[in-house]
Amino acid sequence: MRITRLAAVLACALPLIVASAPAALAAPAAVGLGSVIPAPIEVHPHGSAFKITKTTVIEAPRSAFDVADRLAEALRQTTGYRLRVVSHAPGHAKVISLRTGARLGPEAYRLSVRRDGISLQARDNAGLFAGVQTLRQLVPLRGPFTVAGGDIADKPRFGYRGAMLDIARHFHTPAEIKRYIDEISQFKVNYLHLHLSDDQGWRIQIDSWPRLTTVGGAAGTGVDGVGGGFLTKADYRDLVRYAASRYVTIVPEIDMPGHVNAAQVAYPELTCDGVAPRPRTDIDVGYSSLCIGKEITYRFVEDVIRELAALTPGPYLHIGGDEAHATTEADYIAFQQRVLPLVAKYGKKAYGWNEITQAPAAHNAVAQYWGLSRENASLAAAVAQGTKVIMSPANLAYVDQKYDPSTRLGLSWAGFIEVQKAYDWDPGTHVAGVPESAVLGLEAPLWSETLRSIDDIEFMAFPRIAALAELGWSPSRDWESFRTRLGAYGPRWTARGVDFYPSPQIDWAR
Ligand code: IFG
């Protein structure tokens, strides 16, 4: 048979051959089931891919519509399809089904992908939300929108996977904070610690002490005299609600007895000599202290704790406690002994930087470890008395530190932190005398001395937050696997306009 006739025959036959091929022969899913960050506990690729098309629907109980809407929003953005959310899908429809009530642990989920449907099961909506973050990463950025076939079973190693944003050195607006919540929640980060007060500014409205914000949050308060502003109670409540819809819990911090210059400028009676200190726009630390011997100090502290606790549905209230170099050790302990119990009085769990462990009252508090060393006798002793720990070692988890000497933004007192350094450590065994059973999880602080915009936040936070999120969620770590998955993830940040740092340690996909 002449070539031309053979070609003609094939040309006729080919469409029939392809059209009749089982879906298994359809374009293989462009995203591997094992490409998720943080890495799930169990990934079993098998069977045919699921193809999302314009007729795909998302089926969920009405009680899970909030989560289903998050998934629909994300997939509409990627696919351009309508993706209706329904409580009962029509018989013929291809369905992504979300179900709660499964016998699974907190935040755990099971994801099953088959040719004719996707099933996501969890105990509750928090687990569904975690599974939705995984599913989003399995959908290619460009069509055909096939999701690799197989099963994923997943749950977190630690219950506390946090990010901290300092809005005191530089005030970041609610819109910027919401954008940060959108991004960190995609890596299953579930706590956002807001550093609300410091020497340069006071950023949360307190009704009983109004000058804290009218003076401490005025224009011109902030490092270099820029970044003034503050959260009204309405702003804060709205942020709490927004964070909760992404299954992120807000942790407010009022730092004391140090880091209080802005409060003392607003209320000179909070100093021992009654003289207002000068406003500060530099980045020195350790020069301010509440007046430990004056009763007004404890009225102030209790009023602030009371109002903040009333605004905060989350379990934690952070009272700082770091770098109190202008407070004597005896005064510091006396202060903590009076103040830590006030947090419990208003129904919250006391939480502070690890210096609080000098005070016996810290035995039922949470200590945030920010030291550079893998030894800390005071922390280990407190842990032996019941203190729980959040790991934030400054030389590994402080994402305000420069990546390398060439990084325009950030500080470097704790050393340079490239992505691999942020990834290659274990929160469960990091400090001698602090067993995994005492570790609630980890947190990545982002201090804002050198930040001015959401782009600056994103550049310093990503990709290191992705690395730290994996340390908090996944059972073990594998740098080669992580760097490969991270390289493939890059285009997702680009597609969302996230100004991440293109680390030279990573082979970034285009
Ligand atoms: N240490 C101070 C922060 C901030 C930080 C910048 C803690 C707990 C240096 N305290 O970290 O206020 O200035 O890297």
CATH superfamily of the largest domain: Glycosidases
Look up the CATH topology of the largest domain: TIM Barrel
Largest sheet: 8 strands, parallel
Number of helices: 15
Structural class: alpha/beta
Query: Whole-Å distance between the termini?
Result: 45 Å
Q: Would you identify the CATH architecture of the largest domain?
A: Alpha-Beta Barrel
Ligands: ligand IFG
Please identify the top-level CATH class of the largest domain. Answer: Alpha Beta
Beta content comes to 5-15%
If you average the pLDDT, what whole number results?
95
What do you see in this structure?
The protein is of the alpha/beta class and 510 residues long. It has helices at 3-20, 65-79, 125-138, 174-184, 211-214, 233-245, 261-266, 295-311, 329-345, 377-384, 394-397, 419-423, 454-461, 464-473, 479-496, and strands spanning 42-45, 50-51, 57-59, 85-86, 95-99, 109-114, 117-122, 146-147, 150-154, 160-166, 191-195, 249-253, 316-318, 349-353, 366-369, 388-391, 439-446. Helix 2 runs parallel beside helix 3 (125-138) and helix 8 (295-311) packs parallel to helix 9 (329-345). It has 15 helices and 17 strands. The protein is 33% helix and 15% strand. The two termini are 45 Å apart. Strand 10 (160-166), helix 4 (174-184) and strand 11 (191-195) form a beta-alpha-beta unit. An 8-stranded parallel sheet has the order 12-11-10-17-16-15-14-13. Strands 1-9-6-7-5-3-4 form a 7-stranded mixed sheet. The protein has a two-stranded antiparallel ribbon with strand order 2-8. Residues 14-24 have low confidence and may be disordered. Ligand IFG binds at residues 285, 322-323, 353, 370, 398, 400, 411, 447. Ligand IFG binds next to loops.
